[in-house]
Backbone:
């Protein structure tokens, strides 16, 4: 299994009346989704050898495509790298990066940053070094309008609800 890929099947459960009796019948179906619809398989948080991952981007993208993924965001630590060469007909590569930043004197956060719209705030191979909480707040203030910013693994980061509420500009 690729690092970062998680597959957790669930069971849809519903109750319906049997057409032959007045009894209710509990039915289950093994599925990855709770509802029918147009679903896409993807990963929004993946590292490569451009930061602390085990495989280079071209191998990662190829393996995700081979395994039937529809989209992948390579979000290496503190480095924005575009990977257009690895886009295929079947795999959408979403540009982004994971910013490591201090939240306060005791806690840090990891934020995935995904540019959207017609303009991008970043250039390929741009690196980031956020070293104090004021820089974190300034980064969020400056980039929240042109980017989708997502808080990663809050439990692993030992964050509580108040910490997350204090982060203005994240989704």
Residues:
């Amino acid at each position: 299994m690729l690092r970062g890929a998680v597959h957790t099947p669930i069971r849809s459960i519903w109750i319906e009346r049997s057409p032959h009796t007045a009894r209710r019948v509990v039915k289950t179906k093994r599925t990855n989704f709770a509802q029918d619809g147009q679903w896409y398989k993807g990963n929004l948080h993946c590292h490569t050898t451009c930061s602390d991952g085990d495989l280079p981007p071209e191998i990662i993208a190829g393996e995700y495509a081979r395994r039937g993924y529809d989209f992948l965001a390579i979000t290496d630590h503190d480095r924005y790298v575009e990977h257009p060469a690895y886009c295929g007909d079947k795999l959408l590569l979403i540009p982004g990066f994971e910013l490591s930043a201090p939240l306060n004197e005791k806690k840090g956060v990891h934020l995935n940053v995904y540019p959207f719209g017609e303009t991008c705030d970043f250039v390929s191979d741009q690196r980031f070094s956020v070293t104090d909480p004021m820089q974190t707040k300034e980064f969020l203030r400056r980039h929240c309008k042109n980017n989708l910013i997502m808080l990663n693994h809050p439990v692993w980061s030992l964050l509580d609800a108040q910490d997350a509420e204090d982060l203005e500009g994240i989704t």
User: Anything to note?
Assistant: The CA atoms of residues 127 and 155 lie 26 Å apart. Confidence is low (pLDDT under 50) at residues 1-15. Helices lie at 57-66, 133-143, 161-165. The first helix runs from residue 57 to 66.
